[in-house]
Every structure is written in C-alpha cells, then in structure tokens.
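Exercise: predict the fold of this chain.
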Amino acid sequence: MKRILALVKKEFIHLRNDWWLPAFMLIGGMMELVLVAWATSRPITNLPLVVVDYDRSAASRAFVQALENTGTFDFQGYAPDEESVRQALTRGEINTAVIIPPDYSLQIHDPRGQAQVAVLLNGAESIPATEARRAIEGVAYALNQKLVIERLGLPADEFSSFAFSMRVWFNETLKDAYYTTPAEFGLMLEFTALLFAALAFTRERELGTLEQLLVMPFSSADLIIGKAIPVVIIGYSDFLLMLLLLRYIFKLPIRGSLLLLLIVAFGYLLVELSKGLVISVVARTQHQAFLLVMLVGMTDFMFTGYAAPVEGMPLAFQWLANFIPAHHWLTILRGILLKGAGLDVLWPNLLALAVLGAVITFFSLRYVRRVLD
C-alpha cells in the first residue's frame, strides 16, 4: 500500500508540473459541454430571408407577413430579381429566398386555381435549411387549409377533417438539448478517462523515467494501480462537475436513480481506463497516444447514436454496436436522466456493459502487465 501511495503521490506531482493537461481536460470538457448545451437549447431564429415579389399585391404581402410571424426568419427586404437572390445564396448572405409569381393573387382567388411560390434554401447549411423548410411548410399548410374552407363555402367552425392527438414523452417540448447534451456529457467522460490513462506510461517513456520505475521494487500491479488511481479521481471529479452543471445551470432533469447513475459511471470509467492503459503501453510518444485516443474515441462515437441513430444503421453495424461499451453507457445515461428508467428496464444494457467491461478490463490489464513485466 505504501508503494502504491508513493506512485499516486508521484503522479499528482507530475500533474502539478504539467498543470495544463488537467486544466485542459477539466475546463475544456466543461466549456465544450456548456457550448453544446447553450447552442442546442436555443431555437433557430433570425434566419435571413429575401423575397422576390413579382405580384406586389395584398395577398403576396400577407404571405410574407405570415412568414415573418413564424419567428424563424429575419426579413431582409425585397430583391429585384432571381439572379440577385442566387448570388446572395452563393455568398452565404441569406439562408432562404421566396419567389412569388406575378399572377399569385389571381391564383389565390381563382376557385380552380392553384397558387404556387418558389422557395430556395441554402442546403450547404442543412440544419438552418431544415428549420426554414419546416416553417414554410407550416405557413403553406395553414394557408391551404384556409383556402379550402373558403372555396367550400363552409364556416370555419363547421369544417372538420382527420385529426390526431399527440403526446410527447420524456421531452415534452422536443428540445434538442435533451438529446445532444447527455450524449456530449457521456462522451466527455470517455475522452477524459482515455486521454489521462493513455498518457500514463507514454509520459514516463518520453521523460526517460520509465526504466527507473521498472527497476525499482514495484510490481506491475503496483504500477497499474498507482497510475490508475489519479485517473479515476480526476475523471470522476470531472463527471460530477459536469453533472452539477447540467442539472443546476441548464436544468436537465435527473428523473431516475442518482445512485444508480453514479455507480454505473464509476464502472464505465474503469472500462475506459483499462483501454487507455493499453494505448499508453502501445504508444511510443504522447503525440501517438493522443492520436490513438482520437481514433478509439471517434470509433465509439459512431456507434453511440449521437451522430446517427443506431436503429437506422445497417444490420451489421447494429450488431456491432452491441459490442461497444459507449453505446450501452449512453443508453443507460439517457434512460436514467430523461426517462427515469430503473433496473427493470435497463438491465440488458447494464448486463452487456458489465460483461464487456469485465472482458475488456481483464485482457487489457493482462496485456499491460505482460508488457511491463
């Protein structure tokens, strides 16, 4: 125990001298989480909109007013022709353009006419373009319903058609932050543990002190435990700080068992720690270790469902995702935070994470001990 404590003390002396590394991981991870939570918690508004109005009628002005009332667009004014609109889209000055034909008012008031407008979207920025399309489709749907009622000659309160009742569970307002923030939160824990563990032995190798450690009266188990304890302390502290940040600053709910979340996070931290130690003994320099961490982390990222739902992937990738601990970790994290799920619901993911963690930890530590020996 004294040998292990001496190694732990030495690790913290290293971290004190290289203070930028823990500062970068703790403060950098929290800042990234804050930026993601802030950016995704705000609705998309003030998208630049330009209109080419060839009709110049009351009907066309009413349509433009309806677009402004959605709150999605920032009306920049009228453009003289379509060519100026195309140039503005190419330069990225606007996101959306609407072209109203010269006979728009006649088509609106013609009982058999079909009014049409042209909409141009900047598809190079897909997220604003998708939001703009939704807003315009909503305006078009409301206007179409109003015209149908007028042409049928029925009072609005007597006109009825198919309707449905919808209730959204777990995220009533469909905030993007409720999806992106837990995912970013979970991934930050993985990258923190991987990076700190990956630099454990590579730093010693670059400083020329690894050989000194190996000839001292330390067993390989002493070295592994002594290197692991600071990683666990820093990684878990980072996890708790980010959890407090999400709960009390961005008001992300914790509907499930907090104790279960803390226990699972500690277990997942040990799994990523063992992977990071393997990287640490494989890499020859800290630069190599960092690149390997990015490779492993981004591979896990693709199977977490953050970038794209796992259910929408080919069956082979869906099957492969079951062998990625990060996939089960994020499922458990979202289940506890948003759904209030417990062991009765999450036990398949908990069991898979425990089995994968045990296998990865066993073979990783065995490999690390063999290399050190």
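Check your answer against the key: The chain has two domains: 2-40+175-372, 44-158.
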